[in-house]
Each structure stands twice: as structure tokens, then as C-alpha cells.
Amino acid sequence: MALCSGIKTDGGRCRAQAMRGSEWCIGHDPEKADARRRRASKGGKRGGRGRPQTELAGIKVRLSDLAEAVLAGEVDRANAAVAGQLLNTVIRAVGVELKVREQQDLVERLEELEEIIERQNKKGA
């Protein structure tokens, strides 16, 4: 397969393989520019990076601190129970957010693949 005709931001030539029937890799294909912008605007959600993991880490610390405070007698058990329930609700909401993001990502990727297949079918017809 041929190499991509794209030019990287450092001025060097892209070393990725071009997509079948194209002179571009998926990262440089002009027809994919909108999809790349949409993905980039989502803050790199792929690969599990981003806000939900930070939130979960913070909640974990808060729950641990709350448990320690209850065991030390610094926080009333009833208040701690309510706080724990609220934090668990936040954990569930973060989980739902992650599932929604994952589903949106899969839909976008599927749409991209369908576009590629449609273009290939048109070229082959």
C-alpha cells in the first residue's frame, strides 16, 4: 500500500499507510475533517482519559475519608450514611456518562466505516 500524501504539523510527510483507494490516511483525509474536529472537541475521550476518571478518583478519596471520620467518631453515622448514599449516586451518574460517551464514540466510528464502504462501493461500481 502507498503512504499517505499528508503533511504533518512539523512539516514532515505522514508515514501512515493510505486507506485503500485513497491517497490519504484516516488522519489526513479531507473528507474526514469534520469527524476529526468533533472527536478533538470532545477532549480525547477515547482511551478512558478525561473528567469521569478524575471524578471517580475524587469520590474514592472522599468515601475513604468519610469512613475514617466515622470510625474515629468525628462524623455522625446518620450524616455519613446520607453522604455515602449521595456519593454513590454520583458514582452511578458518572458510570452512565461513561456509557453514553462510549456509545456515541461507537456510533461515530460506525458512521465513518459506513462512509468508507459506501465510497469504495461507488468506486467499484
Core attributes:
0% strand; mainly alpha; 2 domains; 125 residues
What report would you give on this structure?
- The protein has helices at residues 33-41, 51-71, 77-124.
- With 125 residues, the chain is an all-alpha fold.
- The model is unreliable at 44-49 (pLDDT under 50).
Whole-number mean pLDDT: 84
Q: Domains counted in the coordinates: how many?
A: 2
Our count of helices gives 3
SSE class: mainly alpha
As a percent range, the share of strand residues is under 5%
Global outline: elongated
Order of helices and strands: HHH
State the end-to-end CA separation: 22 Å
Q: Helical proportion?
A: 55-70%
- Uncertain regions spanning at least 5 consecutive residues: 44-49
What Rg is obtained from the alpha carbons, in whole angstroms? Answer: 23 Å
Largest sheet: none
Reconstruct the topology from this structure:
Elements: H1 33-41, H2 51-71, H3 77-124
Helix pairs in contact: 2-3
Briefly, what is this?
This protein is mainly alpha-helical. Helices cover 62% and strands 0% of the residues.
